[in-house]
Amino acid sequence: MVNIDSLLLPQWIIPIEPHNEFYIKHAVAVDKGRILDVLPEEEAKRKYQPVTTVYLEEHVVMPGLVNAHTHSPLVLLRGLADDLPFMVWLKDRIWPAEKRWLDEAFCRDGMELALAEMLSGGTTCFQEHYFFPDILAEVTTKAQGRACLGMFMLNSKTNWAGRLEEYVDKGLQFYKQYKNEPLIKINLAPHAPYSLKDRELIKIKEITKELGISIHMHVHESSAEIIESMQVFRKRPLLRLHDLGMFEVPFQCVHMVQLNDKDIELMQANPKIGVIHCPESNLKLANGICPVQKLLKQDISVSIGTDSAVSNNDLDMFSEMRTAAMLAKGSTNDPTAVPAAMALRMATLNGARAIGLEQEIGSIEIGKSADLIAVDLSAFNTQPVYNPISQIVYAASARQVTDVWIAGRRIMEKGELKTLDKEKILVKAKKWQEKIQSREGNISKSSGII
Fold this sequence. Notes:
single chain, alpha/beta, Urease, subunit C, domain 1, TIM Barrel, 2 domains, 9-stranded mixed sheet, 4-stranded parallel sheet, 16 helices, 17 strands, 24% strand, disordered C terminus
């Protein structure tokens, strides 16, 4: 028999690759943090001698979910400004609140709360787009989490940096500090086309090329963005980015809710473009609907993100992939649009591809990192089970995740987080709520604050 670290014995395995398949009574053999084998349970028991055997009789084992776009620390402003028009919400409420509260402590405590929410809900990797990336990396690595953290780029003064040059300097310092951290990947995270000048975007592209990384940016997020771009540049944001050569590097466009046929043709001609779909945030802010079915038909990779908790208001990838599937069907009058297997792929392997980790995570394949989750389907809402893929997407909830592994390490066991202190995190969150509400005051129910 072969000695290994762990043998997982679930009722079902959803490998993602091959697509739309699941295995019954199979095992996942894990050793030295990687997936060693996937084989029938009885054969696995004869072949392997594990240090730990994990019996998961009513569970699905599947790849951990990948949240391809979020602003984690903003969980501390969750519910602060709901039910408002997008630009009022952003410029009159969220940006002023950030200006008042953004600092290292806000980012550290917010990241802890967000990470606890994501890990306990089955998200094993997230792509971050926020300030103080060094603090976010510190919290994530301490908790043994996996992330792609952006070097945030802007040309406006914030509590993180002033002019673009300072953002670049701080970003490069962060890159040098964490570029060799095994569970941290780094990219460039410019805010949006409308917040950067042409020469600034070109500089960002040059840095991206020099470092051999990718770009992750809000694009075509609202109709106001399109109108402003037409007025100032006489072209749509996507075309402007194309003309500046921004798509010469891997480029993930977040939101993309305002697309026409010419935009999609341009994307087809630029194979390094991917789309990150944030359906619940887009619906809540009423910014539009990403035409996911059209994009997928043109072989444009689409992944899923939650966006921030101030516009969602949670970091629940189970809810997000269900909404992505339902929204695609309802908006096209086509029940076959984004079937369950594709929604799950968007939330796993496509998310891994969005951050350049498709060879490492996102599917259960021999040689990949053992970033895995176990989901208990014995609850009322997920019985009986005919197809576990459909059950995961259309019926299961994040609260049914019982166990989480990242690089083979068991980060959550039987519902208990092992690398984060739940009670301390919740106490800190309560203190932030009291402090922020005392400063922000009482806002009417129509805007979401009581």
